[in-house]
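protien #1 (seq + structre)
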Amino acid sequence: MLKIHSLKKKAKDTEAKMTDDEHFSLITSLIGDVPTLGISKDDRIPDDILMSAGYTPGIPRLGIPKLQSTDASMGVTNPGYRPNDKGAMAIPSAILVGSSFNPILAYRVGEAIAKEARIRGFNVLLAGGINLIRDVRNGRNYEYYSENPWQRHYLEQQQLMEFNIKK
Protein backbone atom coordinates (compact mmCIF):
# COMPACT_ATOMS: atom_id res chain seq x y z
CA MET A 1 0.00 0.00 0.00
CA LEU A 2 2.89 2.34 0.78
CA LYS A 3 4.32 1.85 -2.72
CA ILE A 4 0.96 2.70 -4.34
CA HIS A 5 0.72 5.84 -2.21
CA SER A 6 4.25 6.95 -3.18
CA LEU A 7 3.54 6.27 -6.88
CA LYS A 8 0.34 8.33 -6.72
CA LYS A 9 2.24 11.16 -5.02
CA LYS A 10 4.99 11.02 -7.64
CA ALA A 11 2.39 11.13 -10.45
CA LYS A 12 0.60 14.08 -8.81
CA ASP A 13 3.89 15.96 -8.30
CA THR A 14 4.94 15.31 -11.91
CA GLU A 15 1.58 16.47 -13.24
CA ALA A 16 1.82 19.68 -11.18
CA LYS A 17 5.09 20.51 -12.97
CA MET A 18 3.61 20.06 -16.45
CA THR A 19 2.73 22.99 -18.68
CA ASP A 20 -0.59 23.08 -20.56
CA ASP A 21 1.23 22.25 -23.80
CA GLU A 22 2.80 19.21 -22.14
CA HIS A 23 -0.59 18.05 -20.86
CA PHE A 24 -2.10 18.33 -24.33
CA SER A 25 0.86 16.59 -25.96
CA LEU A 26 0.09 13.42 -24.00
CA ILE A 27 -3.48 13.08 -25.27
CA THR A 28 -2.43 12.80 -28.90
CA SER A 29 -0.98 9.79 -30.64
CA LEU A 30 0.60 10.39 -34.03
CA ILE A 31 0.39 7.86 -36.83
CA GLY A 32 3.21 6.98 -39.16
CA ASP A 33 3.37 6.49 -42.88
CA VAL A 34 0.47 4.36 -44.22
CA PRO A 35 1.02 4.20 -47.99
CA THR A 36 -1.98 1.94 -48.57
CA LEU A 37 -4.26 4.68 -47.22
CA GLY A 38 -2.35 7.57 -48.76
CA ILE A 39 -1.26 8.85 -45.34
CA SER A 40 2.26 10.21 -45.02
CA LYS A 41 4.25 10.31 -41.79
CA ASP A 42 3.43 13.17 -39.45
CA ASP A 43 6.27 15.74 -39.41
CA ARG A 44 6.35 15.69 -35.59
CA ILE A 45 7.56 12.08 -35.54
CA PRO A 46 11.37 11.82 -35.33
CA ASP A 47 13.06 9.73 -38.05
CA ASP A 48 14.43 7.18 -35.56
CA ILE A 49 10.98 6.19 -34.26
CA LEU A 50 9.82 2.65 -35.00
CA MET A 51 6.27 3.00 -36.24
CA SER A 52 3.17 0.97 -35.64
CA ALA A 53 -0.17 2.05 -34.17
CA GLY A 54 0.97 5.34 -32.68
CA TYR A 55 3.64 7.59 -31.20
CA THR A 56 3.32 10.09 -28.36
CA PRO A 57 6.39 12.24 -27.59
CA GLY A 58 7.76 11.99 -24.07
CA ILE A 59 8.63 14.83 -21.72
CA PRO A 60 12.32 14.24 -20.91
CA ARG A 61 12.62 17.05 -18.36
CA LEU A 62 10.04 15.23 -16.20
CA GLY A 63 11.25 11.71 -16.93
CA ILE A 64 8.12 10.84 -18.95
CA PRO A 65 9.14 8.41 -21.72
CA LYS A 66 7.89 8.51 -25.29
CA LEU A 67 5.00 6.14 -25.89
CA GLN A 68 5.28 3.78 -28.83
CA SER A 69 2.07 1.84 -29.38
CA THR A 70 1.42 -1.33 -31.31
CA ASP A 71 -1.67 -3.41 -31.95
CA ALA A 72 -1.01 -6.71 -30.26
CA SER A 73 -4.10 -8.84 -29.68
CA MET A 74 -2.72 -11.62 -31.89
CA GLY A 75 0.94 -10.65 -31.79
CA VAL A 76 2.88 -7.47 -32.57
CA THR A 77 1.45 -6.16 -35.83
CA ASN A 78 3.27 -4.61 -38.77
CA PRO A 79 0.85 -3.44 -41.43
CA GLY A 80 3.69 -2.23 -43.65
CA TYR A 81 5.15 0.43 -41.34
CA ARG A 82 8.47 -1.29 -40.70
CA PRO A 83 9.87 -2.71 -43.95
CA ASN A 84 12.97 -4.19 -42.26
CA ASP A 85 10.92 -6.01 -39.62
CA LYS A 86 10.43 -9.56 -40.87
CA GLY A 87 7.40 -10.01 -38.64
CA ALA A 88 6.49 -11.27 -35.23
CA MET A 89 5.03 -14.58 -34.19
CA ALA A 90 1.37 -15.00 -35.17
CA ILE A 91 -0.62 -15.73 -32.02
CA PRO A 92 -3.93 -17.63 -32.06
CA SER A 93 -6.98 -15.42 -31.65
CA ALA A 94 -8.25 -14.82 -28.12
CA ILE A 95 -11.47 -16.72 -28.78
CA LEU A 96 -9.40 -19.79 -29.67
CA VAL A 97 -7.20 -19.44 -26.56
CA GLY A 98 -10.38 -18.90 -24.51
CA SER A 99 -11.90 -22.11 -25.79
CA SER A 100 -8.94 -24.00 -24.32
CA PHE A 101 -9.93 -22.90 -20.77
CA ASN A 102 -6.17 -22.87 -20.09
CA PRO A 103 -4.86 -19.96 -17.97
CA ILE A 104 -1.25 -21.09 -18.48
CA LEU A 105 -1.72 -20.80 -22.24
CA ALA A 106 -3.19 -17.29 -21.82
CA TYR A 107 -0.18 -16.34 -19.68
CA ARG A 108 2.24 -17.74 -22.29
CA VAL A 109 0.47 -15.77 -25.03
CA GLY A 110 0.95 -12.61 -22.98
CA GLU A 111 4.59 -13.55 -22.38
CA ALA A 112 5.28 -14.01 -26.11
CA ILE A 113 3.55 -10.78 -27.14
CA ALA A 114 5.26 -8.76 -24.39
CA LYS A 115 8.70 -10.13 -25.28
CA GLU A 116 8.32 -9.37 -28.97
CA ALA A 117 6.99 -5.88 -28.24
CA ARG A 118 9.93 -5.11 -25.93
CA ILE A 119 12.44 -6.39 -28.50
CA ARG A 120 10.98 -3.93 -31.02
CA GLY A 121 10.95 -1.03 -28.57
CA PHE A 122 7.20 -0.75 -27.97
CA ASN A 123 6.00 0.20 -24.50
CA VAL A 124 2.23 0.41 -25.10
CA LEU A 125 0.30 -2.63 -26.30
CA LEU A 126 -3.17 -2.10 -27.70
CA ALA A 127 -4.27 -5.53 -26.60
CA GLY A 128 -6.26 -7.23 -23.97
CA GLY A 129 -9.68 -6.55 -25.43
CA ILE A 130 -12.53 -7.45 -23.12
CA ASN A 131 -16.00 -7.36 -24.62
CA LEU A 132 -19.20 -9.34 -24.85
CA ILE A 133 -19.59 -11.59 -27.86
CA ARG A 134 -23.29 -10.98 -28.31
CA ASP A 135 -23.58 -9.43 -31.73
CA VAL A 136 -22.45 -11.54 -34.67
CA ARG A 137 -22.02 -8.35 -36.72
CA ASN A 138 -19.08 -7.30 -34.54
CA GLY A 139 -16.14 -8.01 -36.81
CA ARG A 140 -13.72 -8.21 -33.88
CA ASN A 141 -15.35 -10.91 -31.75
CA TYR A 142 -12.34 -13.15 -32.36
CA GLU A 143 -10.26 -10.76 -30.19
CA TYR A 144 -12.27 -11.56 -27.05
CA TYR A 145 -11.79 -14.64 -24.87
CA SER A 146 -15.34 -15.60 -24.07
CA GLU A 147 -18.90 -14.59 -23.38
CA ASN A 148 -18.55 -16.02 -19.87
CA PRO A 149 -17.62 -13.08 -17.58
CA TRP A 150 -15.55 -15.14 -15.14
CA GLN A 151 -13.60 -16.99 -17.83
CA ARG A 152 -13.03 -13.81 -19.84
CA HIS A 153 -11.77 -11.92 -16.79
CA TYR A 154 -9.56 -14.74 -15.55
CA LEU A 155 -7.85 -15.46 -18.89
CA GLU A 156 -7.43 -11.77 -19.71
CA GLN A 157 -5.90 -11.22 -16.29
CA GLN A 158 -3.33 -13.93 -17.01
CA GLN A 159 -2.34 -12.35 -20.33
CA LEU A 160 -2.19 -8.79 -18.99
CA MET A 161 -0.22 -9.89 -15.93
CA GLU A 162 2.67 -10.82 -18.21
CA PHE A 163 2.44 -7.52 -20.11
CA ASN A 164 3.03 -5.62 -16.89
CA ILE A 165 5.52 -7.80 -15.00
CA LYS A 166 8.71 -7.62 -17.02
CA LYS A 167 10.34 -4.40 -18.07
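ok now protien #2
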Amino acid sequence: MAQFRAMTMAGLLLLTGSAAKAQQTAGWKAGAAIPYSMDSLSSFTNRTLMGLCLDGAYQVPVADSTTFIRLGLGLNAFPGQEKTSGTLTRKVSFMSEQVTADVIVPISTSRWALVAGISANNWHVNSTLRDSSDPAMEGTSGAVKKVFGKFGFRTGLEYQVASRLALTALFQQTELGSDARLRKGGDDIYGYQGINPSWIQVGIRYSF
Protein backbone atom coordinates (compact mmCIF):
# COMPACT_ATOMS: atom_id res chain seq x y z
CA MET A 1 0.00 0.00 0.00
CA ALA A 2 2.82 2.40 0.89
CA GLN A 3 4.49 1.60 -2.43
CA PHE A 4 1.22 2.28 -4.28
CA ARG A 5 0.81 5.65 -2.52
CA ALA A 6 4.39 6.58 -3.36
CA MET A 7 3.86 5.70 -7.04
CA THR A 8 0.58 7.67 -7.09
CA MET A 9 2.26 10.74 -5.57
CA ALA A 10 5.12 10.47 -8.05
CA GLY A 11 2.64 10.29 -10.92
CA LEU A 12 0.72 13.33 -9.68
CA LEU A 13 3.94 15.30 -9.26
CA LEU A 14 5.00 14.34 -12.79
CA LEU A 15 1.65 15.45 -14.23
CA THR A 16 1.73 18.69 -12.25
CA GLY A 17 5.24 19.44 -13.42
CA SER A 18 4.31 18.71 -17.04
CA ALA A 19 1.27 21.01 -16.84
CA ALA A 20 3.33 23.77 -15.25
CA LYS A 21 5.89 23.59 -18.03
CA ALA A 22 3.22 23.49 -20.74
CA GLN A 23 1.98 27.03 -20.21
CA GLN A 24 2.43 30.43 -21.83
CA THR A 25 5.96 31.86 -21.64
CA ALA A 26 7.72 35.03 -22.77
CA GLY A 27 10.05 35.02 -25.77
CA TRP A 28 10.11 34.51 -29.52
CA LYS A 29 7.34 32.54 -31.24
CA ALA A 30 6.83 31.20 -34.77
CA GLY A 31 3.55 29.94 -36.20
CA ALA A 32 2.18 28.21 -39.28
CA ALA A 33 -1.48 27.55 -40.10
CA ILE A 34 -3.87 26.47 -42.85
CA PRO A 35 -6.73 28.95 -43.45
CA TYR A 36 -10.37 28.16 -44.16
CA SER A 37 -11.67 31.04 -46.30
CA MET A 38 -15.12 32.41 -45.48
CA ASP A 39 -17.83 34.49 -47.16
CA SER A 40 -16.58 36.91 -49.84
CA LEU A 41 -12.97 35.69 -49.67
CA SER A 42 -14.11 32.18 -50.58
CA SER A 43 -16.35 33.59 -53.32
CA PHE A 44 -13.57 35.66 -54.89
CA THR A 45 -10.86 32.98 -54.77
CA ASN A 46 -13.27 30.13 -55.62
CA ARG A 47 -11.62 28.13 -52.82
CA THR A 48 -12.20 27.44 -49.15
CA LEU A 49 -9.46 25.24 -47.66
CA MET A 50 -6.36 26.52 -49.43
CA GLY A 51 -3.47 28.84 -48.61
CA LEU A 52 -0.93 29.39 -45.86
CA CYS A 53 -0.53 31.70 -42.85
CA LEU A 54 2.96 32.27 -41.38
CA ASP A 55 4.01 34.55 -38.55
CA GLY A 56 6.78 35.41 -36.13
CA ALA A 57 6.22 37.26 -32.85
CA TYR A 58 7.68 38.28 -29.53
CA GLN A 59 5.68 37.76 -26.34
CA VAL A 60 6.10 39.66 -23.08
CA PRO A 61 4.23 39.34 -19.76
CA VAL A 62 2.06 42.09 -18.32
CA ALA A 63 3.46 43.07 -14.92
CA ASP A 64 2.01 41.26 -11.90
CA SER A 65 -0.36 39.07 -13.97
CA THR A 66 -0.49 35.89 -16.04
CA THR A 67 -1.52 37.89 -19.13
CA PHE A 68 0.85 38.36 -22.07
CA ILE A 69 1.18 40.83 -24.94
CA ARG A 70 2.34 39.41 -28.29
CA LEU A 71 3.59 41.64 -31.14
CA GLY A 72 4.16 39.99 -34.50
CA LEU A 73 4.63 40.07 -38.26
CA GLY A 74 2.71 37.71 -40.53
CA LEU A 75 2.18 36.67 -44.11
CA ASN A 76 -1.15 35.30 -45.38
CA ALA A 77 -1.53 33.80 -48.87
CA PHE A 78 -4.85 32.85 -50.51
CA PRO A 79 -4.21 31.51 -54.04
CA GLY A 80 -7.20 31.66 -56.35
CA GLN A 81 -8.71 29.03 -58.58
CA GLU A 82 -10.21 29.69 -62.00
CA LYS A 83 -13.97 30.12 -62.14
CA THR A 84 -15.96 30.20 -65.38
CA SER A 85 -19.32 31.91 -65.77
CA GLY A 86 -20.68 32.05 -69.31
CA THR A 87 -17.86 33.26 -71.55
CA LEU A 88 -15.83 34.76 -68.68
CA THR A 89 -13.10 32.91 -66.80
CA ARG A 90 -11.52 34.68 -63.86
CA LYS A 91 -8.90 33.96 -61.21
CA VAL A 92 -8.39 36.16 -58.15
CA SER A 93 -5.63 35.67 -55.56
CA PHE A 94 -4.97 37.54 -52.33
CA MET A 95 -1.89 38.01 -50.17
CA SER A 96 -1.30 40.22 -47.15
CA GLU A 97 1.51 41.20 -44.84
CA GLN A 98 0.31 41.79 -41.28
CA VAL A 99 1.44 43.64 -38.20
CA THR A 100 -0.38 42.18 -35.20
CA ALA A 101 -0.87 42.97 -31.51
CA ASP A 102 -2.53 40.28 -29.40
CA VAL A 103 -3.46 39.86 -25.75
CA ILE A 104 -2.96 36.31 -24.44
CA VAL A 105 -5.01 35.35 -21.38
CA PRO A 106 -4.37 31.88 -19.89
CA ILE A 107 -7.51 30.14 -18.62
CA SER A 108 -6.83 29.47 -14.94
CA THR A 109 -4.05 26.88 -14.54
CA SER A 110 -5.06 24.89 -17.62
CA ARG A 111 -3.14 24.67 -20.89
CA TRP A 112 -5.78 26.75 -22.69
CA ALA A 113 -5.42 30.45 -23.41
CA LEU A 114 -7.69 33.05 -24.99
CA VAL A 115 -6.29 35.22 -27.80
CA ALA A 116 -7.68 38.59 -28.92
CA GLY A 117 -6.05 41.34 -30.91
CA ILE A 118 -5.90 43.72 -33.87
CA SER A 119 -4.02 43.77 -37.16
CA ALA A 120 -2.82 46.22 -39.81
CA ASN A 121 -2.76 44.70 -43.31
CA ASN A 122 -0.92 45.44 -46.52
CA TRP A 123 -3.06 43.67 -49.15
CA HIS A 124 -2.05 42.52 -52.64
CA VAL A 125 -4.83 41.46 -55.02
CA ASN A 126 -3.98 39.84 -58.35
CA SER A 127 -6.74 39.21 -60.90
CA THR A 128 -6.82 37.71 -64.38
CA LEU A 129 -9.76 37.53 -66.73
CA ARG A 130 -10.40 35.76 -70.03
CA ASP A 131 -13.41 36.20 -72.29
CA SER A 132 -13.84 33.56 -74.97
CA SER A 133 -16.00 36.00 -76.97
CA ASP A 134 -13.56 38.93 -76.66
CA PRO A 135 -9.90 38.10 -77.45
CA ALA A 136 -8.94 41.69 -76.53
CA MET A 137 -9.75 40.88 -72.90
CA GLU A 138 -7.39 37.91 -72.84
CA GLY A 139 -4.95 38.19 -69.95
CA THR A 140 -6.45 41.36 -68.51
CA SER A 141 -5.02 41.74 -65.04
CA GLY A 142 -4.97 44.17 -62.18
CA ALA A 143 -3.34 44.61 -58.80
CA VAL A 144 -3.90 46.79 -55.77
CA LYS A 145 -1.50 47.54 -52.91
CA LYS A 146 -2.57 49.21 -49.69
CA VAL A 147 0.27 49.97 -47.28
CA PHE A 148 -1.01 49.29 -43.76
CA GLY A 149 -4.21 51.10 -44.66
CA LYS A 150 -6.48 48.17 -43.87
CA PHE A 151 -7.25 47.03 -40.36
CA GLY A 152 -8.77 43.96 -38.76
CA PHE A 153 -9.40 42.05 -35.55
CA ARG A 154 -8.61 38.48 -34.49
CA THR A 155 -9.72 36.15 -31.74
CA GLY A 156 -9.20 32.51 -30.90
CA LEU A 157 -7.78 29.83 -28.62
CA GLU A 158 -4.42 28.18 -28.02
CA TYR A 159 -3.71 24.85 -26.36
CA GLN A 160 -0.21 24.29 -24.98
CA VAL A 161 0.71 20.71 -25.92
CA ALA A 162 4.24 20.96 -24.52
CA SER A 163 6.55 23.65 -23.18
CA ARG A 164 7.55 24.70 -26.71
CA LEU A 165 4.58 23.62 -28.84
CA ALA A 166 0.98 24.85 -28.98
CA LEU A 167 -2.05 24.17 -31.16
CA THR A 168 -3.85 27.29 -32.39
CA ALA A 169 -7.27 28.19 -33.78
CA LEU A 170 -7.84 31.80 -34.83
CA PHE A 171 -10.62 33.75 -36.54
CA GLN A 172 -9.54 36.81 -38.51
CA GLN A 173 -11.69 39.56 -39.99
CA THR A 174 -10.05 42.30 -42.07
CA GLU A 175 -11.16 45.06 -44.41
CA LEU A 176 -10.41 45.69 -48.09
CA GLY A 177 -13.68 47.01 -49.49
CA SER A 178 -13.98 48.01 -53.13
CA ASP A 179 -10.19 48.02 -53.61
CA ALA A 180 -10.52 44.37 -54.70
CA ARG A 181 -12.21 45.41 -57.96
CA LEU A 182 -10.56 44.64 -61.29
CA ARG A 183 -10.58 47.51 -63.76
CA LYS A 184 -9.96 47.83 -67.49
CA GLY A 185 -9.67 51.27 -68.99
CA GLY A 186 -11.12 52.80 -65.83
CA ASP A 187 -14.23 50.59 -65.94
CA ASP A 188 -15.11 47.84 -63.48
CA ILE A 189 -14.99 44.49 -65.22
CA TYR A 190 -16.75 42.54 -62.47
CA GLY A 191 -19.05 45.38 -61.53
CA TYR A 192 -18.93 47.16 -58.17
CA GLN A 193 -17.74 44.44 -55.83
CA GLY A 194 -16.29 44.84 -52.38
CA ILE A 195 -14.70 42.32 -50.06
CA ASN A 196 -13.78 42.22 -46.39
CA PRO A 197 -11.64 39.06 -46.11
CA SER A 198 -12.33 36.73 -43.21
CA TRP A 199 -11.02 33.27 -42.43
CA ILE A 200 -10.43 30.67 -39.71
CA GLN A 201 -6.89 29.35 -39.42
CA VAL A 202 -5.77 26.22 -37.58
CA GLY A 203 -2.12 25.45 -36.98
CA ILE A 204 0.80 25.23 -34.57
CA ARG A 205 3.03 27.68 -32.71
CA TYR A 206 6.60 27.00 -31.60
CA SER A 207 8.33 28.79 -28.74
CA PHE A 208 12.09 29.35 -28.92
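Helices lie at 2-21, 39-45.
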